[in-house]
Amino acid sequence: MDNKKPFSYNQSKQLMPSKKDLKMFNNCLEAEQEFETCWRNSKYTAIKVADVDVNQVL
């Protein structure tokens, strides 16, 4: 059984994820692709705002 904690404190006393849970990217393209994947995933969307007729509002 692995008793390692998922977070630890760095030298500046900031809470950081463990190295095994920290995902690093080899280049900007990989990071952008990960962002887009998360952005499109509805389980990461905190709220859903109703559509607004912009012409009517203006």
Spatial sequence of strands, sheet with the most strands: 1-2
Mean pLDDT: 77
Q: Strand share of the residues? A: 5-15%
SSE series: EEHH
Structure description:
This protein has 58 residues and is of the alpha+beta class. 29% of the residues lie in helices and 10% in strands. The protein has helices spanning 28-40, 54-57, and strands spanning 7-9, 15-17. The chain has a two-stranded antiparallel sheet. A hairpin with a 5-residue loop joins strand 1 (7-9) and strand 2 (15-17).
Short description:
With 58 residues, this protein is α+β, with helices and mostly antiparallel strands. It has helices at residues 28-40, 54-57; strands spanning 7-9, 15-17.
Keyword list:
58 residues
Q: What is the element layout, followed by pairings?
A:
Layout: E1 7-9, E2 15-17, H1 28-40, H2 54-57
Antiparallel strand pairs: 1-2
